[in-house]
Amino acid sequence: MELMRFDESLPESPSRKRETQEQIDDTYAQIVEKYKKSKLIPWRKFVETPSFMNLVGQLTNEDVIDLACGEGFYTRKMREMTQGKVFGLDYCENFIKMAKWQLNDSDDIDYRQADCSLPISGIPYQFDLVTPTFLLQNAVTEERFEQMIRNIWNLCKPGGRVCGMGSSPKVPADALLKEHKYGRSFTTDPDTYFKRNSSKYIVRIEDKDADLDISLVLYWYSAEHYENIFKKLGFINFRWVEMELFEDTENQEYWKDFMDGCSLIMYEAFKPMNAN
User: Fold this and answer.
1) CA distances, 59 to each of 52, 53, 71, 111, 251 (Å)
2) Per-residue pLDDT of the chain (276 residues; tens, 9 = 90+)
């Protein structure tokens, strides 16, 4: 999603710099406010976020890196939970700028722009927990998909854990239609989706209360492909973890279509202690 850019070529006089910073702050404040509203979309508030944080579990002193961190929603949550280092990487320059802006001059989260489908360099640490949140669904080829997982391996400490999340590879196209009432609609190619890796499809996310209407181009990979590449690169105990409904449990009938064959899923894997 392309976000508003600010002009970095303005004169450098103190008064103009102050005026420019105020414009930047105002622009980002508006964008961030709108983006934060998107996190309050019911399926995100009651299903996605609590399910993922439940999978992450309790943290104390662990070092954490979030791949495809966006504007830092999950990195900020994990910063509150651990005394260790917290990093966030994202391909989108404006997301990284938004994430840094929200730190309010703090430096307790290290945000960096990086294409996680290419070899990642310049990160001088390995991490106890790697969280590829909505990352692998963006791999345009099988080679890029494998490189993403290779990056996850390289960034993970021996004995470390991976907690990932993204679009489910297990949901056929005809089952996606039932999520329209929750503000999620899908456009797929019936000749390739659910049949061939790297199948392109589009997810449209709408919510009137959040003033949100975006379309994301994503790529489908089979569950077997996920499992095989994680195993090939050395990870062990890979498992799929289904989403759960939290908080709004009194409306389980309403959520039945969303939860039954949910288009979102999580996964967990471990790097062996004796791995290089």
Assistant:
1) 13, 10, 21, 20, 31
2) 333 332 333 344 444 444 444 544 455 455 556 666 677 899 999 999 999 999 999 999 999 999 999 899 999 999 999 999 999 999 888 889 889 988 887 889 999 999 999 999 999 999 999 999 999 999 999 999 999 999 999 999 999 999 999 999 999 988 898 999 999 999 999 899 999 999 999 999 888 887 788 888 999 999 999 999 999 999 999 999 999 999 888 899 999 999 998 999 999 999 999 987
Q: Please name each of the domains of the chain with its CATH number.
A: 14-270 (3.40.50.150)
CA 232-51-111 angle, 5° bins: 70
Q: CB-based burial of residue 106 (10 Å sphere; 0-12 exposed, 13-18 middle, 19+ buried)?
A: exposed
78-89 pLDDT per residue, tens: 999 999 999 999
Supply the pLDDT for residue 36.
64
The C-alpha atoms of residue 47 and residue 42 are separated, in whole angstroms, by: 8
